[in-house]
Batch of 4 targets.
Target 1
Amino acid sequence: MTQRGQWIFVLAIVGALSGALVLGVTLTPALQPVGVESKAPDFIAVNVATGDSVSFAAYEGDVVLLNIWATWCTPCVTEMPAIQRLYDELHPHGLKVVAISVDNTDVERVRDWIDERDFTFDVLHDQSARIEREYQTTGVPESFVINRDGIIVKKVIGAVEWDHPTQVALMRRLLGADEQPSEERGQ
């Protein structure tokens, strides 16, 4: 191939790549980062208890702790009991916990795993792991605290002591439950 032929070949490759880039940018909607102060993306996953498909719209108007996890993830397994304790304390005030498993297994295995540990908050299963793309996660566990308006107010990468007083105070504030019910105060 002559030097002129090489340049024509290089220019053709650069032109094709440029065209693909322009086409990709044109056809792709603007990517919005998912983080604090952004609207929580909608999703659809299977409720492991009922087998029904559930979308985030089912939690509209609720304060939600959304936890993306997997049964094989040691930090996920470590933080689950603290999530249950937070749920036990604040569910009467309206807190919703939605733990979405991204295990590449069937829903029955996830349900059995949850049942063995007596977790009572909502557990969903997204075998496709689409939730990870929707929420732009970097791994598991990742958690999002979402207010009643559907806005993410906190994003956490990694395991957290969700029943720590700092976390409980945040949730109480979002729930408007700063005051303990009279039966908790001993009255």
Target 2
Amino acid sequence: MIPLLFLLICCLSTHGQNLDFPDSNAVWSVFEQKYFVEGDSVLNGTVYQKYYLSNDSALATSSFFALVRKEPGTRRILAIPAGSTAVDEVTLYDFSLQTNDITSVHPLSFPPASEGIVVRVAGVDSVLILGDYHKRLRIVGVEQNTGFLEYWIEGIGSTFGVFNPGITGFVVFDYPYPTLLCYERNNEYLYRNPDYSSCYEKQDVGIDQLDAPKSISISPNPASDHIRISSALKIENYRIETMLGKVVATGELYSGSEVVEVGGLPAGIYVLRVRVEEEILSIKFVK
């Protein structure tokens, strides 16, 4: 889902050096949202970096979003969301993890995932970015798993966005998943997502903005080998798309209840679109 494109990239078997999150001059672009770090703050004797959120491509306006710090002597990144206190400090990342290690993280900007998400490290390597080796972790969900590709890159964060770690392990049906478009430090791009033409894009619609599935249902959901499509109206044909809009299956249907095989699809979230009486209806399902 999220291919990586760096100015200079090289995958190695080593684990990279210890690179902290930046304390200034850094911007993360997550669709139309931009996060940046500016200044610090002391809370209960502990120093945090101050992170801000802007919905303005030029960063002309912004609001305080979170306090972030690295835990001394470790490679854990901790955060306190705006309006909270030190007792609400949560773990964003742990870059000391190795392959098959399991941990719980707390994304701050993906509303449905306000609770902790349990994830597992599926693999570890390093990427060379502008002369520095950054440790990179391949992340998958434990209790749930969307199948979306997610990496954590030390010093940069998740490929879903700096405050969205682990959300590949949280399945939702009515909220669009974010994507890191760009990361720049000292006015240099260290990360550019090749699926997008700029560092400021409107977010894809969620299922609540698709055609309301009033006359269609599917079961089971989540699915394993097949889904049964049911409608009070005559179903003419269907297509299945990935969350990026790629069509992965099509077919003709002839009645109000039909079985479609999905066993060959990779695990993930899909959108089923069916034509009924000159109308297209859409609904999400998990494979």
Target 3
Amino acid sequence: MTSRSLSRLAILAGLGLAPVAASAAIDPVIGTWWTRENESRVQIAPCGESICGTIVWMKEPNKEDGTPKRDANNPDEAAQQNTILGLQILHSFTLDKPGKWEDGKIYNPRNGKTYRSILTVTGPDELEVEGCVLFLCDGQTWTRFKE
């Protein structure tokens, strides 16, 4: 085999793995989203074979004394010193179909609780974010951030 043939073979072998990683990379949930009432922005990005969401902007990232808001309600005492800005709040999702991710987790730093979550793109610039406890779910609509 020539080196050119080996290169082609390597590329073709790599393409067999590409759809798994590419499915998250091109999925319509990928991007930055305004949360309800534009209080913060969450960036959703590929995270292994899943997706993760991180708070990348907050309307009020600091307390009145100027210090950063911290994850004070986290049940893990060590994590209570983490700042809210930069906090990962979405993780462990499974792709159902493009634009719909299920069986994930969403963390609410306001109460320190983690909920089962579903993310569904409902329009070109709308994302339905659901948090569930047992069989009861509550949702909110996030809108795509456009620079």
Target 4
Amino acid sequence: MSQSKILVDTNAYLRLAKTIHPLLSTPFGEKKYCLYILPELNKELANAKFENKFPWIWDVEYKENRQHFPSIGTKQKKQIKQTNEYVWEYVQTDIPGPSRTDALYIAHSIELQIPVVTDDQDMKELAISFDTEAMSTLELLRIMLDSGHIKMKAITSLCSYWRYIGDIPANLDADFARLFPT
């Protein structure tokens, strides 16, 4: 069975990678879910604001884990490039907010027909506009829990940590209650 690829954007990566390591390119569950980033995430992490807030991102083990990208054929690369241009034009005229990298993630999601994990509400709105799947970090954690990849204790610890550092995903409480009813 082939992998069920899922793209992880910057905010989701930063929320998960320290606790669930290695996060990327490690198949889990019956569907062989496998998480990937785009090379542009590494470029975003070069920003000093990330280095100061998340100094662990430059540890060798995390840098090495971020070298795994989805394999994309030449024809798909061309389609992604065209789709990205169209998505970026749409962002500039109809839905300001998403970044160029966000548009690129959406273009990959469209052309590769794979979901993207993000807690960025503008990016989710963009995904809806292009009828592609965007899931929250908590939705990904639900998949991981159902696949036996993580335990509920890790999820509650993560949510507590996010609250502690003030990095709370949008709709955290409502999504948590919906996805992890007691």
